[in-house]
Design goal:
The chain is α+β, with helices and mostly antiparallel strands. It has one domain: 2-Layer Sandwich (Ribosomal Protein L30, Chain: A). The chain contains 2 helices and 3 strands.
């Protein structure tokens, strides 16, 4: 069985004064505070969520 690709992201900006939908997307990604990091499976759904909040997060590790 092949190992699944993962992506590690970190929240670098607050969702304050942004649409509620963007805050909900961060929670869906497992982020809710500045500096938090999470590792997720690299899927098209995850990539789409990252694209919507790309101004609030950064990719730390892309394997």
């Amino acid at each position: 069985m092949a190992s699944k690709k993962t992506i590690t992201i970190e929240q670098i900006r607050s969702p304050n004064r942004r649409p509620e939908r963007q805050a909900d997307t961060l929670v869906g990604l497992g982020l809710n505070k500045l500096g938090r990091r999470t590792t997720l499976e690299d899927t098209p759904a995850t990539r789409g969520m990252l694209k919507k909040v790309s101004h609030l997060v950064r990719v730390v590790d892309d394997k």
